[in-house]
């Protein structure tokens, strides 16, 4: 029998707020939120624990947060600082093992199977290191796989009833994965969003335990291959390994407007700018993608996305811009006002474009883009700017 793996999941508690408290200790113990603006536009990105006691939550409109907590302090985001602290955390995790998988700016998995010490001792030491050296509170989940370790962390944080950060450590012994998961809501599982949860509830499946008991074959009949995956996850089975280097999956830019836009022509101007920004980022990284997507958020916070997959990869501004414009035409509704617009390119690779027999336009464009890239690297980004037709 194979020796069970030992996977540790680390999640920085209210990370953005913790960084802001390091920068300004006067914020400690106060109700404050990162994001939004004094005028109440935008959304809360992160909120302190005193603010959470008042009902403030991440992704909540700032205006609503201020209604719930009139004394709420709003702090502007500073992603450069968050990125710097995130890098410092990952450097310390790498001191324990090279089997580290960063899954977001404030989360990572570690395979600690071969480290020798007890899992709890490693978890406590790691937690103290991050808190003591960087001042960042964090919670840890440890289990035989990534799925259960991540849920263990979430459970530890949810169970916390104190005033400050949870600093929780939750360990699920090997062999107890299924019983540990059983009582929790089914949407705590990976792959169960609102729509899947609603479908499962039609079959009286409300907890992970309910899902684990449901016949796997029937789940497959109802959900296809996803049904098999759901059944295995509900039983605490996850064979996925640590991915030590994560490739870039997409490049996107978006813009939230200070005042909602009502005219399509105004939105198109921003699509042009965003397409240009995305194209420049792709070219700088020598990346191309096949799927172009727009994201649109109406004034009532209803959000939708539309995408098109092209026959070949691209990083060209005009292709991204024209495709995004077509997607906007598909979803545009006269009379509705727009709060946010985003443009993204997905399904990325670094492979050269496959040239057809008569693909002379593409060859010409590639040479032109390479020449422009050389000119800008020598003389600066602003030496050549894109002409805007009026």
Descriptive report:
The protein has 390 residues and is α+β, with helices and mostly antiparallel strands. The protein folds into three domains: 173 residues, Reverse transcriptase/Diguanylate cyclase domain (Alpha-Beta Plaits); 56 residues, DNA polymerase, domain 1; 134 residues, Dna Ligase, domain 1 (2-Layer Sandwich). The protein is 41% helix and 21% strand. It is built from 14 helices and twelve strands. The strands form three sheets. The protein has a five-stranded mixed sheet. The chain has a four-stranded antiparallel sheet with strand order 9-12-10-11, with helices on one face. Strand 7, helix 6 and strand 8 form a beta-alpha-beta unit. Helix 4 packs antiparallel against helix 5 and helix 10 crosses helix 11. The longest helix is centred in the last third of the chain and has 21 residues.
């Amino acid at each position: 029998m194979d020796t069970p793996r030992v996977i540790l999941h680390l999640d920085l508690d209210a990370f953005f707020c913790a960084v802001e408290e390091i920068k300004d200790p006067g914020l400690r113990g106060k109700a404050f939120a990162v994001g939004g603006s004094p005028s109440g536009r935008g959304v809360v990105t992160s909120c302190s624990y005193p603010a959470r006691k008042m009902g403030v939550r991440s992704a909540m409109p700032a205006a609503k947060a201020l209604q719930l907590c009139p004394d709420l302090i709003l702090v502007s985001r500073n992603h450069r600082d968050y990125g710097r602290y995130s890098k410092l955390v990952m450097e310390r995790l790498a001191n324990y093992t090279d089997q580290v998988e960063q899954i977001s700016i404030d989360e990572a998995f570690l395979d600690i199977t071969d480290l020798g010490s007890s899992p709890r001792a490693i978890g406590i030491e790691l937690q103290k290191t991050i808190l003591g050296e960087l001042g960042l509170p964090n919670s840890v989940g440890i289990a035989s796989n990534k799925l259960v370790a991540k849920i263990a962390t979430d459970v530890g944080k949810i169970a916390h009833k104190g005033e400050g950060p949870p600093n929780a450590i939750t360990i699920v012994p090997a062999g107890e994965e299924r019983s540990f998961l059983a009582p929790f809501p089914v949407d705590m599982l990976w792959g169960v969003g609102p729509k899947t949860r609603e479908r499962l509830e039609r079959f009286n499946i409300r907890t992970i335990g309910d899902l684990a008991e449901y016949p796997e074959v029937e789940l497959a009949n109802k959900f296809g291959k996803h049904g098999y995956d759901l059944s295995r996850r509900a039983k605490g089975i996850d064979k996925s390994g640590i991915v030590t280097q994560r490739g870039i999956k997409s490049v996107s830019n978006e813009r939230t407007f200070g005042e909602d836009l009502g005219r399509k022509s105004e939105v198109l101007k921003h699509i042009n700018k965003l397409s240009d920004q995305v194209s420049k980022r792709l070219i700088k990284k020598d990346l191309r993608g096949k799927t172009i997507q727009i994201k649109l958020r109406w004034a009532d916070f209803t959000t939708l996305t539309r995408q098109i997959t092209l026959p070949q990869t691209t990083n060209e501004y005009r292709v991204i811009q024209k495709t995004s414009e077509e997607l906007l035409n598909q979803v545009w509704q006269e009379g509705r006002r727009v709060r946010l617009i985003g443009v993204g390119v997905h399904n990325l690779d670094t492979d050269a474009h496959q040239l057809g027999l008569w693909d002379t336009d593409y060859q010409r464009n590639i040479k032109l883009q390479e020449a422009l890239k050389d000119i800008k690297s020598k003389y600066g980004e602003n030496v050549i700017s894109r002409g805007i037709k009026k």
